[in-house]
Design a protein that fits this description.
Blueprint lengths: L5 H10 L4 E4 L13 E4 L6 E5 L4 E5 L4 H9 L3 E2 L12 H7 L6 H4 L6 E7 L5 E5 L11 H5 L8 E8 L1 E2 L4 E8 L2 H12 L7 E7 L2 E9 L3 H8 L2 E2 L3 H6 L5 E6 L5 H9 L4 E5 L4 E6 L5 H8 L3 E5 L12 H11 L15
Parallel strand pairs: 1-2
Antiparallel strand pairs: 3-4, 4-8, 5-9, 6-7, 6-8, 10-12, 10-13, 11-12, 11-15, 14-16, 14-17, 15-16
Helix pairs in contact: 6-9, 9-10
Bound molecules: flavin-adenine dinucleotide.
The site of flavin-adenine dinucleotide has 16 residues, from strand 14 and strand 17.
GO molecular function, one term: catalytic activity
Keywords: FAD, Flavoprotein
Protein name: Glycolate oxidase FAD binding subunit
């Protein structure tokens, strides 16, 4: 299935009886797949609006992220998402997986820049929320619900997003420590300072830790020099640490950093952490260390991403998710049985 309009998608879905899986650029092959028909969003690839003066845009789900950024850049703007390996990723795929990167420090997660959304449900209803509201599904903040829903609630048709100025220059400071507790001390010292950083990450590889702060705009270098020596840091490499054979995403507090590093190191893993947000990604060489890492970091929430082709285990909010699934996809057409707790 490859609809070219939302109306066509609605007609296809209304007639659909068997499970389907929406797919954008297909850049996340590790996401559990079953015997499902594929609904490609490649035909929904129009940038519907770019309101330069308002710093907003409306994009169909199948627009390649890189194409959208090029269009915005021509007007000195950007969509402040920087997922790892954006490659052929589409707007819809990034929203559906909430695939955020280091810019989350300043601009929030994927969902925080979505101001409106247009979805197609399994009964063929086209529902809209936020942005230019025509028909709302009463009571639900659809953009927040569908961000990270992994295609299990309905098809994301288009999104309205908020844009930001594209900085003409950036400067990054790196401070190194090879002791996890000392690294945390440096992080906390800088988290308390009134710094306007775009990115604030920590990396840990081969027994060596780095705290990275990126500043942008005309005063980027001066801001960076107030913190330390400006370094030549490749942020693509930093973001790449979020992907791997097996990745465990840990949601906790910034002060958990030394525990996260020790748990990762014990199993040959690397770490990248949004230092001020308490979110860390541990990339492991294989799945053998997953259980031990989870146990070491319990009761923090650990979601296993990448590499393991298995249904994510049930989460504390499972009952709520079940109810949402029943509300949005009662026919269980969208990836049934594939997501958290077999939703
Ligand atoms: C149990 C479980 C298992 C999963 N397993 C997989 C899997 O195997 N594979 C996969 O691809 N995906 C999986 N997912 C989905 C995946 O975790 C999410 O899609 C994705 O990680 C959401 O990322 P996020 O960056 O939006 O952060 P979230 O996970 O939404 O948030 C991370 C943490 O930050 C907090 N937070 C977020 N926003 C704010 C805010 N504005 N203010 C304050 N706190 C905030 C949250 O409360 C949470 O503690 C799983 C999800 C769950 C619940």
């Amino acid at each position: 299935m490859r609809p070219a309009t939302l109306q066509e998608a609605a007609a296809l879905l209304k007639a659909q009886q068997a499970p389907i899986r929406p797919i954008g650029g297909g850049t996340k092959p590790w996401i559990v797949s079953r015997d499902e028909a594929v609904l490609e969003t490649g035909g929904l690839d129009r940038i519907l609006e770019h309101n330069v003066g308002d710093f907003t845009a409306v994009l169909e789900a199948g627009v390649p992220f890189a194409d959208a950024q090029r269009t915005f850049a021509e007007h000195g703007q950007r969509l402040a998402w920087d997922p790892p390996d954006p490659g052929g990723a589409t707007i819809g795929g990034i929203v559906a997986t909430a695939d955020s990167g280091p810019l989350r420090h300043r601009y929030g997660g994927v969902r925080d820049l979505v101001v409106g959304i247009n979805v197609v449900l399994s009964d063929g209803t086209i529902a809209k929320a936020g942005g230019k509201v025509i028909k709302n599904v009463a009571g639900y903040d659809l953009a927040k619900l569908f961000a990270g829903s992994h295609g299990t609630l309905g098809l994301i048709g288009s999104v309205a997003v908020r844009l930001h100025p594209l900085p003409d220059r950036t400067a990054t400071v790196a401070i190194e420590r090879d002791d996890p507790d000392e690294l945390l001390a440096v992080v906390l010292e800088h988290a308390r300072r009134p710094l306007e950083a775009d990115r604030f990450d920590v990396t840990w590889q081969d027994g060596r830790g780095r705290m990275l702060l990126e500043f942008s705009g005309a005063s980027a270098h001066q801001q960076a020099e107030r913190v330390g020596t400006v370094s030549d840091v490749d942020w693509d490499d930093v973001r790449a640490l979020q992907r791997g054979t097996v990745v465990v995403k840990v949601s906790g507090r910034p002060t958990d950093l030394p525990d996260v590093i020790r748990a990762a190191s014990a199993h040959g893993g690397t770490v990248v952490s949004r230092a001020a947000l308490g979110l860390s990604w541990i990339a492991l060489p294989d799945a053998t260390g997953v259980a031990a890492v989870r146990q070491a970091l319990s009761p923090r929430h650990c979601a296993v991403l990448d590499g393991i082709n298995e249904v994510p285990e049930a989460a504390p909010g499972q009952a709520v998710m079940e109810r949402l699934k029943a509300r949005f996809d009662p026919a269980r057409i969208f990836r049934p049985g594939s997501f958290v707790g077999g939703i």
